[in-house]
Specification:
Blueprint: E1 3-9, H1 13-29, E2 33-39, H2 45-54, E3 60-68, H3 74-91, E4 96-103, H4 106-113, H5 120-137
Parallel strand pairs: 1-2, 1-3, 3-4
Helix pairs in contact: 1-4, 1-5, 2-3
The structure holds ligand LW54GNZ2 and the ligand CC(=O)[C@@H](O)COP(=O)(O)O.
The ligand Nc1c(NC[C@H](O)[C@H](O)[C@H](O)CO)[nH]c(=O)[nH]c1=O binds near residues 44 and 74.
């Protein structure tokens, strides 16, 4: 049994709830323990994972968030930099799944967040599980 931390950027409550539910279900189905913490936005997710990892309490992480394009360049910053931060952690050897949606509108987000449809939260959790297994294999 491993211990996972879901780090969610709570920007769109209903969409977040679906993504977290999908991620939690995928992890608990494999018998793993799950905790959830909340940060203000996707830009805070990588930093929060770094802080959590320094505690030594967790084996893996799932980044959950929703970034929807607005009117300005801010979308590119939030979408690109949050992904870059998560990828940097992955390349440092952390088992992190990226479940941060970066979409044009809420309709696209809904299809992807819903566990009964694209289940991107569950998909991200499964990616974290694969990385954790690879870490054990190559230890
Ligand atoms: N526009 C979205 C944000 N923006 C907020 C940033 O992530 C960050 O919290 C702020 O700039 C303070 O550092 N975050 C999302 O998760 N989703 C968005 O659509
Ligand atoms: C992530 C975004 O693009 C968004 O929430 C910000 O919207 P805007 O560009 O209209 O300020």
């Amino acid at each position: 049994m491993a211990k996972f931390l879901i780090v969610e950027a709570r920007f769109y409550d209903d969409l977040n709830d679906m993504l977290v539910a999908g991620a939690r279900a995928a992890l608990e189905a494999e018998g793993h323990a799950v905790e959830v913490i909340t940060v203000p936005g996707a830009l805070e997710i990588p930093g929060a994972i770094v802080l959590a990892d320094q505690s030594g309490q967790y084996d893996g992480y799932v980044a959950i968030g929703v970034v929807i394009r607005g009117e300005t360049y801010h979308f590119e910053i939030v979408a690109g930099e949050s992904a870059r931060g998560v990828m940097a952690l992955t390349m440092d050897g952390l088992a992190v799944g990226n479940g941060i949606l970066t979409v044009e509108n809420e309709a696209q987000a809904l299809v992807r967040a819903d566990p009964a449809q694209k289940d991107k939260g569950g998909e991200a959790a499964k990616a974290a599980l694969v990385l954790l297994a690879l870490r054990s294999r190559f230890a």
